[in-house]
Amino acid sequence: MGSLIKNNTVLESDEVTFLTLQEYLDSDNRPQAVWLDAGEEIEAIADFLDDITAIALNFPAFSDGRAYSTAAVLRRHHNYTGEIRAIGDVRLDQLEQMARCGFNAYQLADGQNADQALKRIEGFSVSYQQTIDRDPLFRHRA
Amino acid sequence: MYVYDEYDQKMVDERVEQYRDQTDRFLAGTLSAEEFQHLRLRNGLYIQRLAPMLRIAVPYGMLSSTQLRKLAHITRHYDRGYAHFTTRQNVQLNWPKLEEVPDLLAELATVEMHAIQTSGNCIRNVTSDQYAGVARDEIEDSRPWAELIRQWSTFHPEYNWLPRKFKIAVTGAEGDRAAVQVHDIGVRVLRENGETRFEVLAGGGLGRTPIIGPVIKQSLEPKHLLTYLEAILRVYNRYGRRDNKYKARIKILVKAMTPEVFAQKVEEEWVHLKDGPETLTQAEIDRVRKHFTAPAYEKLEDHVPAVDDLLADNSGFGNWVKQNVKAHRQPGYVIVNLAMKQTGIAPGDVTDEQLEIIADLADEFSFGEVRVTHEQNVTLADVPKKSLHDLWTKLVEAELASPNLGLLTDIICCPGGDYCSLANAKSIPVAEAIQRQFEDLDYLHDLGELDINISGCMNACGHHHVGNIGILGVDKKGEEFYQVSIGGSGYEDASLAKILGPSFAQDDVPGVVQKLVDVHLEHRQGEERFIDTYRRLGIDPYKEAVYATWEV
Ligand code: SF4
User: Fold this and answer.
1) How far apart are CA A137 and CA B346, in angstroms?
2) pLDDT at B477
3) How far is the CA of B417 from the centre of ligand 1 (A)?
4) For testing contact with chain A, the best of B42, B126, B158 (most A CBs within 10 A)
5) Rounded to an integer, what distance in angstroms lies between the CA atom of residue B281 and that of residue B293?
6) Rounded distance, CA A101 to CA B230, Å?
7) Ligand 1 in contact with B416 (CB < 6 A)?
8) Which structural domains are found in chain B, ordered by start?
9) φ/ψ of residue B523, rounded to 5
10) Cβ of A60 under 8 Å from any chain B Cβ?
11) Average of per-residue pLDDT across B297-323
12) What is the pLDDT of residue B203?
């Protein structure tokens, strides 16, 4: 596995253990971290989001874009404020899109150069659409 | 037309640098070929049979003379002196060098052009009506809405990795020149009680499973346009199939769910988005609309004796006017179409010199702007009628005055086996052979409107399903064959063509078209169009005529 980027810092790894969705739903206490595969629906854990501190969303391939929508739904519909971590086939050229959809932690795929990651997360200086920390351009364009 | 402000320009400039960096990393070996393939496709660069192919975006077909001149320069310096107008109002280059593409893009950016999202599984260039703003049957100019959609869809972070490509078309006229019924999303701009409203269609498309798109939303208020589109895209991105690329388009999802259930799902998503930050402000709508106001028309007479008197005779000029010139909403002005369908030249191909001539003519006769049509032609939208003869004379000199717009020889044709690595068969030589079979202009004019569409494979870039006569290249035990279908239409009376029967060898295709035309002429009532005769008769007489003599 490649490096973990979190809070704009490059780490080797951290201590969080993510349960699968099934494990999470089966457990009696309220675990704090769960990971979902691309086809799994976030709605299944919607009622427990207040107690969850980290959700990992898997990219089975970098060309599979479902997790972007899952992250957006988590942030926008459910106002989830905890960590959303990208896992799986996470590559440099997609980090900006992930960040703009609401991801804030990235477990890079093998061979991805962590030194370049922070610059890539930042990406373009302007965007047309609403992003996680910005209104759409037309709301502040002269 | 739309003019960039500092934000639009910055995005395009930053994209050039981003793409340059991606190209450099690929050439240096630090970006895998597989990854670069996806990234370059999102910038319109295919690797084709003979060389890369670069698709340049022409949003809803609008080009200024400055942009045309830049394209001419680019085809000369980075390519072999010609470009190709596509069936989605874009421009393609057939021979750019991979390592020169970043420089080429930097040049394009200086004239507010780019190749963003012209390929790949993302939201593609928005298309519209080539007569927007000037058509007599227009309800409202569709271009401001197309531009708003263009901006919203450009680099949308959530929809860059969709299950499959995604095409949106907008029309604001009674006649549908944007083929909204065969797009992933079609938007019709309407007026209800004096107010602008949208009708939204979803899940239409051509390709392997052609489907006429159902209406899923009526009476949508303008301010909700983007949030509603966002809801559709999110449902598609989450639930569209990803296991089989032939079942990944939104049309399959809409069909599987049924349009009613799909619409319901979109409504449920929309509840969260409606009235949110992406809700359009009146200020933004006004800002964009200002770019599409009417040019400074002169006050002119609609009746121009010098032109009208020449129409009656069958002179070259008269025929050209009757076929290629359309009525304009402004008195004394006309819409002029240049049919890029000279026999012997691949449909849609244009040389660097012709691009410059078109630019000059646009400056002289049409306020410096042109439109590319999805029939692969070029439109000068605002020509004073009194200047028509002058313009025509110059077009004749430049070999741009083919008087065959909308006629049988105005063939819509994909690049096919000559260029495209996905092709089953060549398409350009078939187009040429048909054009040669029907060289008699008087005959063509008598025959009237007839669309022929040719695709080199099931991907249907030549839109063969909506051709009055559709021709599809198929592979039959390693040999190139052609399946012929009839009865399609891509306009407001949209219909999908039906397959005639077993396919034909290349040499037989012009003869088959001739037989179909003969049946039409035999049964035609009055001035009936080919498609109307067909709709009245059904497929049988055509089938009999073609296969009776073929003895397959
Ligand atoms: S229809 Fe097929 S052959 Fe023609 S351009 Fe499209 S992919 Fe290529």
Assistant:
1) 42
2) 85
3) 8
4) B158
5) 19
6) 13
7) yes
8) 6-109 (3.90.480.20), 134-292 (3.30.413.10), 305-397 (3.90.480.20), 412-547 (3.30.413.10)
9) -105, -5
10) no
11) 86
12) 97
CA dihedral in degrees (B469, B46, B99, A125; nearest 10)? 110
| Alpha carbons B442 and B167: distance in angstroms, whole number | 38
Q: Is B517 helix (H, G, I), strand (E, B) or coil?
A: helix
State how far the Cα of B47 lies from the Cα of B459, in Å rounded to an integer: 17
Q: Which atom of ligand 1 is nearest to the CA of B423?
A: 3
C-alpha torsion B18→B8→B124→B462, nearest 10: -110
The residue with tokens 């035309």 is B517
CA dihedral B527, B532, B537, B539 (to 10 degrees): 130
pLDDT at residue B550 in the model: 52
CB distance B473 to B464 below 8 Å: no
| Preferred mutation among A115, A138, A139, A140 to probe B, highest tally of B CBs within 10 A | A138
CA nearest to B306, candidates B209, B218, B384: B384
Residue B285 confidence (pLDDT): 97
Q: Report helix, strand or coil for B140.
A: coil
Give the Å distances, CA to CA, from B180 to B47, B171, B542. Answer: 29, 7, 29
Give SS3 for B11. helix
Which residues of A fall within a CB distance of 8 Å from B38?
62-63
Integer distance in angstroms from the first to the last C-alpha of chain B?
54
Q: Going by C-beta distance under 8 Å and a sequence separation of 6 or more, which residues neighbour residue A51? A: A30, A32
Specify the pTM: 0.91
User: Cβ neighbours of residue B317 under 8 Å, at least 6 residues apart?
Assistant: B310, B389, B392
- Flag whether pLDDT at A22 surpasses 70: yes
Average pLDDT over all residues of chain B = 93
CA-nearest of B205, B203, B183, B188 to B263 is B203
Q: What pLDDT was estimated at residue B552? A: 45
**DSSP for B233-250?**
HHHHHHHS--S-GGG-SH
- Both structure tokens of B470: 């559709």
- Closest chain A residue to B270, measured at CA: A77
- DSSP, residue by residue, B185-207: EEEEEEEETTEEEEEEEES-B-T
ipTM of model? 0.97
Q: How far is the CA of B483 from the centre of ligand 1 (A)?
A: 15
Partner-chain contact B35 A124, CB within 8 Å: no
CA distance B496 to B532: 14
* Ligand 1 atom showing the smallest separation from residue B425 Cα: 3
Rounded (5°) CA angle A22-A27-A33: 70
Distance, CA of B126 to CA of B119 (rounded, Å): 12
Ligand 1 mean position, distance from CA B101 (Å): 22
Question: Average model confidence (pLDDT) for chain A?
Answer: 93
